[in-house]
Amino acid sequence: MEANKLKKIMKKMEHALAAASFAEEGEAGTAQSILKEDRRVLLALKQGRIDAATVKYAINSSKRIGAQVDILYVASSPAAVVDDAVLTGLITEFAAEGVASRAIKASGCMKQAVIDYTNREKEILFAVVESPLSLDEDCSRRDTVLAELWRKLKCPLVVVMEGAGA
Asked: Nearest to residue 127, comparing CAs of 141, 117, 137?
């Protein structure tokens, strides 16, 4: 585990030095793009419950801050995690908006999937979900919807609810 941390630190140092070199030569835009490479937003979606406002919020937020989007697509069971046309459509939609994205498939409890993913991926700036109710769906433990998630989550959580603008 320590070797992975050291590799990540070295990679960040290389990026910082490369960005500094470009900045010294007057290439501020290139320098900024190098430094923003690892910035990512997590969009957590439950299969069958994809809200257009939540997707739009993730697109707009990512464009504003220059981040990529990781789409965590959570199905009810491992057997339900298949290539889904909806997921392919989302990736196409993000690409059309100029936002790089990648799909991550999981099954079971969304709350646990979000916690596990943000624990593994340290570059996540914040996580976006469509409602507090989707977090507890298919979970064996029925905690208060957000209380335990807040304690374990390694990044801010944005909940986009009906009526909220993007």
From this structure: 117
Which residue in 83, 59, 62, 63 sits closest to 73, CA to CA? 83
Find tokens 């990044």 and name the residue: 155
Q: Determine the Cα–Cα distance for residues 82 and 152; give it in Å rounded to an integer.
A: 28
Bigger pLDDT: 87 vs 34: 87
Helix or strand holding residue 30 (H, E): helix 28-35
Q: How far is CA 77 from CA 51, 139, 147, in A?
A: 21, 11, 25
Cβ–Cβ < 8 Å for 105, 81: yes
In this structure, the strands spanning 157-159 and 124-129 are: parallel
Whether the model clears a pTM of 0.90, i.e. scores above it, the answer is no
